[in-house]
Specification:
Bound molecules: iron/sulfur cluster
Structural class: alpha+beta
Largest sheet: 8 strands, mixed
Radius of gyration: 21 Å
Strand order of the largest sheet: 3-2-6-7-8-9-1-10
Mean pLDDT: 96
Low-confidence stretches: none
Distance between the termini: 46 Å
Number of helices: 9
Number of strands: 14
Number of domains: 2
Order of helices and strands: EHEEEEEHHEEEHEHHEEEEHHH
Helix content: 25-40%
Length: 318
């Protein structure tokens, strides 16, 4: 275990900003991950309202430009990144997106953004609010470095070879700590009581959520794990052979998500869409990858305009 005083940490960040794109939670009206220019911008007090995924899985991305049969893939080389202040739920969401975009089939666009980046976590000393449930989901230690806030300093746990190399490179900023082990349990975060929902699909209680759901898709867009996308061609009106192929985030809560040729919508009922998201988060992804897609960050509940708490609904099912 290493240690770093907070004023020294700020000097480290100032030095990183010279050679990396440094991304951290910043508080404006709401907290979001942004590229920072000064260490004082970092906001550790609460987790970001918005997920960090857009730095790897872009909201809008040009896959290639075409002019007749001539196709050009953009050759932008992403900058080296250091991401700071990621909570355990968000770090595990990056791991889930790696499973979908790298382990399953390599997505070159995503992979390029994920390479050359250092992940520095910030451990939650308590639950953010009544919506968190990370403690129910067996999350892993997935970070290069993890910061434990000790008031005037941080304890720093090294979690990977990349983290070791980073500490070595910036060794003048870190000190050895006598602390050998740290308690990582976040009290009160084990809120989801039923871990296996496979037998509950036809339960009448889903209606408690379905009847309040507006199909607005805020839950999808705020989720750090959701990774569905659409692909569209934007063509030039004057010459339809010219244009670009783009991908944008998609959302399974929108009716158009499952609209196919012939105007057939195979998840036409709101109930089916509502349950599909929760089953993908808590069952289908696990069947394929061995872990839940959901990491219990609570954003989809916090940001839902009608505050539908699917954890409460599941817990109350008899
Ligand atoms: S954010 Fe809430 S209302 Fe909107 S689609 Fe999701 S569950 Fe439904
Ligand atoms: S489903 Fe909800 S609680 Fe789970 S990771 Fe996504 S936003 Fe967070």
């Amino acid at each position: 275990m290493k240690a770093i005083k907070k004023e020294v940490f700020n000097r480290l960040i100032s030095s990183l900003i010279k050679s990396y794109e440094v991304i951290a939670p910043v508080k404006k009206e709401l907290v979001s991950f942004e590229v920072i220019k000064r260490p004082e911008e970092i906001y550790f007090k609460t987790n970001s309202y918005f997920p960090v995924k857009e730095f790897f899985f872009k909201k809008n991305e040009t896959l290639f430009r075409f002019n007749g049969n001539n196709v050009k893939v953009p050759v932008k080389k992403p900058k080296k990144k250091v991401l700071i202040g990621l909570r355990r739920c968000d770090l595990n969401s990056i791991l889930r997106q790696d499973m979908a975009f790298i382990d399953e089939d390599v997505d070159a666009y995503y992979k390029k953004e994920r390479e050359n980046c250092v992940l520095i976590g910030y451990h939650c000393s308590k639950v953010e609010d009544e919506y968190c449930f990370c403690g129910s989901l067996k999350l892993l230690d997935f970070f290069d470095l993890m910061l434990y806030d000790k008031g005037k300093s941080f304890l720093v746990e090294v979690g990977s070879k990349k983290g070791e190399k980073f500490v070595k490179r910036y060794k003048q900023f870190f000190k050895e700590s006598k602390v050998k082990k740290i308690d990582k349990v976040v009290k009160g975060s084990d809120r989801l009581k039923k871990k296996d929902i496979s037998s509950l699909y036809d339960h009448a209680d889903w209606e408690k959520g379905v009847k309040r759901c507006l199909s607005c898709a805020a839950c999808n867009l705020l989720c750090p794990g959701c990774y569905c996308f659409d692909i569209n061609d934007k063509v030039e009106i004057k010459d339809l052979s010219k244009g670009e192929r783009c991908r944008t985030w998609a959302a399974c809560q929108l009716r158009c998500f499952t609209r196919v040729a012939g105007e057939h919508v195979f998840r036409d009922k709101r109930e089916d869409r509502f349950k599909h998201r929760i089953y993908h988060q808590l069952q289908y992804f696990k069947e394929k990858h061995g872990v839940n897609l959901c990491t219990g960050c609570g954003r989809c509940i916090r940001g839902c305009p009608t505050r539908i708490d699917f954890v409460k609904i599941i817990n109350e099912m008899k």
